[in-house]
Amino acid sequence: MATAADPEVAAALDRFHAAAADLVAVGLTPVDGDDAAAVIRGLEAGARIASAAQVDLLDEVDRLGLHHADGHRTAKVMVRHTAHLSDAEALRRAKAARVARDLPEVAAAFRAGRIGRCQVDRIARTHANPRVRHLLVEVDGHVAAPMP
């Protein structure tokens, strides 16, 4: 696997991989229902944070125009090709990146693991409609609030 040029990013990726490997190695066998709920919530929050990082990375590649160096037409295409993603998954990430630009509270909640990928995907579907996008931006904080 290639190492990131920024030593801090490379070290963080190493820690991330090690932590994920630790979870697999210890196994996720809860001792009771309360423990199962705690493990589910913890693992889900981590997955949401990782998913938000994937979206942020696509956005940075796009913002900086880094996809042009390899001849990719868009950042979405570069991420799809480099990560061996389906067209649908790459499109979901690109739409989520556009949401993150326009809805900072939704983006912050996603990065913190408080809302999930499914919720962001639904928000992105609404955000893609130019007739209602401005209304969605107006209620960013409300949309970002997780259900009780």
Q: What's the short version?
A:
This protein is an all-alpha fold. The protein contains 8 helices and no strands.
* Strand residue content: under 5%
- Globally, the shape reads flat
Alpha-carbon distance between the two ends:
41 Å
Total number of helical segments?
8
Q: What are the segments in which pLDDT stays under 50 over at least 5 consecutive residues?
A: none
Q: Rg, please?
A: 17 Å
Mean pLDDT: 94
Count of all domains: 1
Largest sheet: none
Secondary-structure element string: HHHHHHHH
Helix/strand-derived category reads mainly alpha
For the secondary structure, the number of strands is 0
Portion of residues within helices: over 70%
Features of this protein?
148 residues; mainly alpha; 8 helices; flat
